[in-house]
Amino acid sequence: MRIRIKPQHVEQFNQHVRNAYLCSTQPSVAPKTLVVPQPKPVIVDKGESSRYWVDPTNHMRLPRSLAAALYQTQNTQSKRSIGNMEKPSFQPKKVLILSKLTRYEFEKKVNKGCDDDQLASILRKRGSDYNRLLSKHKIHHSYLNTLQRELENAGIESRLVRRFGYTQEAVDWADAVFSAGGDGTFLMASSKVRTKHKPVIGINTDPQGSEGYMCLMRKLPEENLSGALKKLFSGNFEWLYRQRIRITVTGDDGISDAIELHDQQLNRDPATTRWTDNPRSPARENDVEECMSLSPPVKKRMISESDAKEIAMIPIEKETVELPVLALNEVFVGESLSSRVSYYEIGLNDEQMLKQKSSGITICTGTGSTSWHFNINKLTEQCVQDLMKIVAEHCNLPQIPHTDKNAVSEICTKFNQQLIFDPDRKQLAFSVRDPIFNATFPPTDPRGFADKIRIKSRGYDAHLVIDGGISYRFNDGSEAVMEVRDEDTLRTVVFR
Amino acid sequence: MRIRIKPQHVEQFNQHVRNAYLCSTQPSVAPKTLVVPQPKPVIVDKGESSRYWVDPTNHMRLPRSLAAALYQTQNTQSKRSIGNMEKPSFQPKKVLILSKLTRYEFEKKVNKGCDDDQLASILRKRGSDYNRLLSKHKIHHSYLNTLQRELENAGIESRLVRRFGYTQEAVDWADAVFSAGGDGTFLMASSKVRTKHKPVIGINTDPQGSEGYMCLMRKLPEENLSGALKKLFSGNFEWLYRQRIRITVTGDDGISDAIELHDQQLNRDPATTRWTDNPRSPARENDVEECMSLSPPVKKRMISESDAKEIAMIPIEKETVELPVLALNEVFVGESLSSRVSYYEIGLNDEQMLKQKSSGITICTGTGSTSWHFNINKLTEQCVQDLMKIVAEHCNLPQIPHTDKNAVSEICTKFNQQLIFDPDRKQLAFSVRDPIFNATFPPTDPRGFADKIRIKSRGYDAHLVIDGGISYRFNDGSEAVMEVRDEDTLRTVVFR
């Protein structure tokens, strides 16, 4: 939603937004109508401030053309059609809470035997800030305590687990799942929910560090959490449906076990990862004992070297397996090594397969279209300005306003916004990174939609990565089919 | 150079180009003026054919907007200023030839004991074509024989080595170096030449498979090789200077040994890699015995785990090392795993360091600007068309020709062409892949030039990759400074 404000009122309005956001109502008193404005782009008629958006949580400025993805909230969230109207009601008996491990907790574990002074020193050597870690740890637990308390007050039984306790059994026990963490924790939580009848709700316990794309109200202040939960329990919300990608793989030698890329990626501050706080790196087995794959193992069939020659003469039967994890954001297919070129063939719907050479390909849902897909395809104002200048000169149209920063910003914003689509849309968007076209690899549109996408690997050491966290080997000889199915829909909530 | 041809003459002209290119003059008779037209874009006034360029070697069509990089020959090759005029003369006494290993040779080696029928069968199972491999093997050796014969006829002593015999000693022995292979072999050849007085000349022995950006006449037909070499020996050429990037790294625990990513990448057909035929994958030590790192080891200092706590309290002295390899195309800095986000800080010239989060960054020379850098930054016609449409609607300028495919193609071409710059330009171009901007990581221009670039790693498992082939560990705590120095210039030849 855009609001037109006169220039002289901008500062006042921003102040209002900040105040409302950092709402100082008492947590125990639920306001009758909870008004917690989302951080929204503020558009002004003229001036530099119109091109920027200010984040109330930390007052950082961000060009509007890039905020397009971050704050494209209401427009893209679909309402189900009238024929599918379901009066919202959230009254579970049993709720499972998946909590992330805070970085503070992780560092204490990894540096066993160090007292807090020593830990502070070790962290400082790495350029990390102990006090900040501790502060974030406390904030996380403050949210968590409030959540648990409100569930108890509502007479709902709850269990708290961290990632290694987040088993299918625990999920099956629950009627609903809450994640307490950031977007990464939400992804992890939803990865084990395979039915569209079990809601998953994300609570962003790190609004400073995580964008909270998939969390309730994105960056809900802690003092407003109680009120929001009461709203939820009283049915004052709407269901939000997010489509997911089902992947079926056919391979020569079976499908490898998943490689778990999750980790708290604790070498960095803030503790965030690619576009969410989806932790990502091979779990350090030595350091953290309870390292367990979240994905059930997939049956493998080994071929011994001595049989290779004989087998070379016999057609090998390929095995087809549906991967046990659905993708909520995207599937990435490409070489594991970032500097290696990826080779594969791609077929959209039931069309012919085409050869491609690139830095890999992402296939995303509407949910994922604000994430990696967005970052690959967005244009910067620099690029848009350059192009507008070329168009102006080539077409002899000096009235094209390439020197007008506001116009460039608005045009860039419109372009970037069109990259984003509805989480409930039952289609896949593909995006080829750094496509290499030459006489051998004829060009194709590097971006588009399809109902079904088939990829045949011609890779050396390629993998198929789900939501940036779970990786399957995907080499020459393997094929994957990706599609969206209604029964894989993820149910979550939104406040309108 | 562009030629305006009337539509009715296009086919005739194309035929002429093809004939001249596949010149049928006898190899032993050197034409007085050797006219071997480079594959050039043919621009026509109207019609679909104006947007496409036809490759005479295989008749594949390629949109002009993408051919822009491939065929931007004469315009960007600099002539040194009058004050630096040096009459060309090429009269070495001793020449070293670095030949690639053909894929056929590699497969024979790896599948020891298999006769050709069995080899053919194994390859067929992988979707590879034995006959094609054999044919390319023969073509390669045909070029190689001609080269050796011409050198002998000219009274020049020559030695032939493959990669494992390509030592510094061998290079120092020679007055000049020839590479026989594709662009990857040229990169490998130039990697050991550290003086600007020793010319390196690339002969593209796989014109069908390799683009030959850095090779003599790019895709010189084999029957024209003799003539071209005679031209070279008679001084009828110009020097072409290519700038390179010197990298100096400072790290906490010393610099790791280089990881050799070279390999013949022989699982694919055609045997080409990212943007050149630069082979790339961890050398398979078990399969190919003479596996030797091309890069001299760099001194390492290990810190034991037991000292870690103690050391945490003591400032560690950092070690500064100049890497033993110069980059001719580009340096890539980023996480090793393609699906992991990269964190680092970057400072241009002597400006303040800025934090960034992205899919990594490339820093390239003019030579490299046609390569990975180009593929990252190029726009497709789809993208340009979308943007032109938005501009037309936003600015109410219906005369912007976004539905005119020719106009879109020309504008796209102009944009893409401006990405490419002179190999002799003494500046670095940086390009950030999929930059992630949000409130924590303020936006910066993702593309630009600098004389010097400093990068501080905040990586988990990051590396610094030179020309896609040699990789150095580059983790949190390490810093690299990249710059261009005159003494690192690579001298090669070009025919005008």
TrEMBL record, chains A, B:
A Pfam family matched in the record: NAD_kinase
Organism: Caenorhabditis brenneri
Annotated TM spans: none
Family from the record: Belongs to the NAD kinase family.
SUPFAM superfamilies in the record: NAD kinase/diacylglycerol kinase-like (SSF111331)
A single cellular component GO annotation: mitochondrion
Superkingdom per UniProt: Eukaryota
UniProt EC number: 2.7.1.23
Keywords: Kinase, NAD, NADP, Transferase
GO MF term set: NAD+ kinase activity
Protein name: NAD(+) kinase
Broad class of enzyme this protein falls into: transferase
InterPro entries listed in its UniProt record: ATP-NAD_kinase_N, ATP-NAD_kinase_PpnK-typ_C, NAD/diacylglycerol_kinase_sf, NADK, NADK2_mit
GO biological processes: NAD+ metabolic process; NADP+ biosynthetic process
